[in-house]
Amino acid sequence: MSVLVLLEQRGELKPCALEAATAASKVAQAAGVELNAVYIGQSLADQSAELAGLGIAKVYAYENDALNYYSNDGYVPIVRDLVQELGATVVIGSASALGKEYCASVAARLGTELAQDAIEVSWDGGLKAKKPVYAGKIVSEVSITASPAMVSLRPNVVKIERDGDAVPEIVKRDMPQVSLRTVLKEAAVAAAGQIELTEAKVVVSGGRGIGGPENWPVVQELADALGAALGASRAVVDAGWIHHSHQVGQTGKVVSPDIYVACGISGAIQHQAGMRTSKLIVAINKDPNAPIFKLCDYGIVGDLFEICPLLAAEVRKALGKE
Amino acid sequence: MKIAVLVKRVPDTASVFQIDGDQKSVKTDGLKFVMSPYDEHAMELAIQLKEAGKADEVIVVSAGPDGAKDVMRTALAMGADSGLLVTGDGVESLSSRGVAQALAAALKDFGAELILAGKQAVDDDASQVAERVAELLEYAHASVVTRFELEGTTATVDREIEGGQYTLELPLPAVCTIQKGINTPRYPTLPNIMKAKKKPIADKNLADLGLSGDALNSGIAVENLSLPRQDRLNKIIEGDNEVRVKELVRMLKEDEKAL
Ligand SMILES: Cc1cc2nc3c(=O)[nH]c(=O)nc-3n(C[C@H](O)[C@H](O)[C@H](O)COP(=O)(O)OP(=O)(O)OC[C@H]3O[C@@H](n4cnc5c(N)ncnc54)[C@H](O)[C@@H]3O)c2cc1C
Ligand SMILES: Nc1ncnc2c1ncn2[C@@H]1O[C@H](COP(=O)(O)O)[C@@H](O)[C@H]1O
User: Fold this and answer.
1) Residue of chain A whose Cα is closest to the Cα of B156
2) I want to staple B188 with a disulfide (CB 3.0 to 4.6 A). Which of A6, A101, B22, B77 is the partner?
């Protein structure tokens, strides 16, 4: 019996991989079993420090440039075989866009059950997970008795925790022979330094209240002050004011930052579906009856064109940025 | 070439959901049921491929209660040629694993070269049925597809990742799950709605697919349903702008330690 965590990487380990390891470590402790990890990708050597103190006993590392990018054909058989070899009874991965495909495929090959996009995972005589359903309007707590029990964890819902600085043993594995049916022609990824919405610790979003695309700088200034990623409501995406990749909500991205700031967003139920697991919600809206105020922790009823610049300046002051 | 589109009947997410007395299910009376929105995009893609002469036949496949035929009719009115409903006792309590087994078994004889599905069903948000079908049938597959081109027996697709996309080439037979943005699903016209009434929907029983009794026992169970976090502070900060902004930053920094 053991727990296995799938370490997601994109050239380097993703924060969500370390979050999954933190959650998996708690499960392993509660179950009284060992935690191991599987890493597939380029050399892990210069990243092993990232894995210190997470409670991982061994990392099974399949290091090969050919598997730098995720592929079902490449990754899934490796994990299936490793799970069987180790007799892992719990497998935890990340619910990123790729991670969900990865976990679903592994679960299928192992013929087991999987709870995707969990916001909480625990061990109580068996694996339990909480996950939002019905566009986040309901939270479902499930228990998984199939073995291995699989869960993918929503990014940003668990804080990375380290206990000491013990690094895991790296067990190098040979690449199995794989024939890749699917060919990766091109990987277009965001410019370095750009903060990805789903991973951002702070998100500042703008809605129709910004009045027009020429006014994004007002919201962007606040985002910059907070080191935040820029989000948007669907209304402004549909209006063509910003690219769809910024949309937060039921048909956009689901974010769980430490702070979510909604500027000029009414807070429609479909928008809430994408941000209601945020730890703190701040709303700036000139309409005191906007639904967003029922969902927020802190609200300011006012004109965002006045509030945002003042707030940006105050944040910079508080963070010693000026 | 034959295309199968997986379509699920789900409650409209704009509905008010009430938890049933058992705390394990949602009350279904009064809910309006629709085709899961991402499945509409998968349907539209299939019809466009047929219109472009790249597919000969489009079948819509669903697992669910008899009522699922309503959304299958919508798919037929959009342009699918026929339907296949997997149904029978226990179909509504299947886990994602069970649904995928049922769909894969039902699809075996049809021989679809391409299977299209939504990236997730908006009721259980399970994000796994289509991937499981692909693995069970041993098809190549890609999820969260935002662009799809077909040339001969090769599909070129863009699949979304956080902060970017991968462009992939998949050999058929393949399964793709579709993300919105790829197209705008059509509204069925009245003549097509009338025509759809005459198109065939075949029933397949779970038991006929060898799925009954123990085979349906899932290893996952809902223990409890609850409402999402209700403990928001709802604190409206009063005062003039300078004062409010200072107070907000102070609270974020000192009270919440979030800055
Ligand atoms: C199937 C479906 C899926 C959907 N998916 C999504 C989704 O994923 N994400 C999403 O966001 N929406 C989604 N929607 C749309 C959603 O229902 C709302 O229409 C949308 O979120 C509204 O965007 P908004 O808040 O920017 O605009 P509005 O509702 O128009 O709100 C604008 C707000 O700005 C305020 N305001 C105006 N001027 C100022 C000012 N100067 N200062 C401060 N405040 C100001 C107004 O008081 C108002 O509250 C979906 C809808 C459907 C039907
Ligand atoms: N019961 C079902 N019948 C037909 N298709 C389904 C069913 N469940 C899921 N699917 C398909 O699989 C996709 C993903 O669903 P899910 O894995 O439940 O989020 C859906 O968008 C459908 O295309």
Assistant:
1) A185
2) B77
- Asked if the C-beta of A180 comes within 8 angstroms of chain B's C-beta atoms, the answer is no
How far, rounded to the nearest angstrom, does the alpha carbon of residue B70 sit from its chain's CA centroid?
Answer: 16
- In chain B, count of helices (H) and strands (E)? 6, 13
Question: In the numeric block, which tokens belong to residue A136?
Answer: 């986040």
CA B140 to chain centre: 19
Query: Residue A70 has what pLDDT?
Result: 95
A76 touches chain B (CB under 8 A): yes
Contact A235, A259 (CB under 8 A): no
Directed axis angle between helix B96-107 and helix A97-110, to 10°? 70
- State the pLDDT at residue B163: 81
Give the mean pLDDT of A229-233.
97
pLDDT at position A193 over 70? no
pLDDT(A179) > 90: no
Structure token digits, residue B228: 């999402």
Domains in chain A: ranges and CATH:
2-173 (3.40.50.620), 197-318 (3.40.50.1220)
Q: What is the dihedral of CA B134, B139, B145, B149, to 10 degrees?
A: -150
Q: What is the pLDDT of residues A19-59, one digit of tens each?
A: 999 999 999 999 999 999 999 998 888 888 999 999 999 99
**pLDDT attached to residue A132:** 96
Contacts of residue B32, Cβ cutoff 8 Å, sequence gap at least 6: B11, B12, B15
- pLDDT score of A196: 84
Say which residues have a Cβ less than 8 Å from residue B22's Cβ, sequence separation at least 6. none
Q: For residue A208, with 0-12 CB atoms within 10 Å meaning exposed, 13-18 middle and 19 or more buried, which class applies?
A: middle
How far apart (Å, rounded) are the C-alpha atoms in residues A138 and B236? Answer: 26
Q: What is the pLDDT of residue A195?
A: 77
Q: Which pLDDT value is given to residue A112?
A: 97
User: Could you tell me the CA-to-CA distances from A256 to A167, A197, B111 in Å, in that order?
Assistant: 29, 9, 42
| Residue that is written with structure tokens 């466009």 in the block | B48
Q: Are B46 and B39 in contact (CB under 8 A)?
A: no
What is the Cα–Cα distance from A262 to A252, expressed in whole angstroms? 15
CB pair distance less than 8 Å for B248 and A194: no
**What is the spatial distance between Cα A65 and Cα A71, in angstroms, rounded to a whole number?**
13
pTM listed for this prediction:
0.94
Mean pLDDT taken over chain A: 95
Q: Which residue type, as a one-letter code, is found at position A112?
A: T
Give backbone dihedrals phi and psi of A283, rounded to 5 degrees, phi first. -125, 135
Q: In this model, does residue A259 exceed pLDDT 90?
A: yes
Assigned token pair, B55: 């597919």
Domain residue spans of chain B = 2-216, 229-259
Nearest CA-CA partner of B143 in A30, A100, A7, A201: A100
Cβ of B166 within 8 Å of Cβ of A186? The answer is yes
Confirm or reject contact between A17 and chain B (CB < 8 A). Answer: no
Residue A192's pLDDT is 62
A256 Cα–ligand 2 center, Å: 25
Q: Give chain B's residues under pLDDT 50.
A: none
pLDDT at B162: 85
Mean pLDDT of A158-165: 95
Q: Given this structure, which CATH class describes domain B2-216? A: alpha beta
CA-wise closest residue to B203 among B98, B42, B53, B65: B65
Gap between the Cα atoms of A254 and A273, Å rounded: 7
